Hints:
The protein has helices spanning 6-17, 21-40, 86-92; strands at 45-47, 51-58, 61-64, 71-74, 77-84. By secondary structure, it is α+β, with helices and mostly antiparallel strands. The strands form two sheets. Strands 1-2-5 form a three-stranded antiparallel sheet. A two-stranded antiparallel ribbon has the order 3-4. It is extended.
Amino acid sequence: MANLSMTGLVEEVKNKTGLSKGQAKTVVETVLAELSTHLANGERVQLAGFGSFEVRERAERQGTNPQTKERITIPASKIVGFKPAAQLRGRLGTTPPTKETVGG
């Protein structure tokens, strides 16, 4: 299974739109910059048919330093979460969790 890199994505956009490589690169970079800006502002980004991105808070927690086995405190942090839309889940052959599958 191959991975899609930034260069590969630019090439795909170029091939499917007829844009030049430079124009396709500008489009891809602009879309990613806008996604990043909105997420940095704490906004949720919803892309119909694809999914939604949101910033999630991770609480401070205890961990173990694997080298010293010493207990350490891992500070609170923010991460970007992604929830696929039903259309994307369908393309992947997955279904959303239900009360029965998550034990609720």
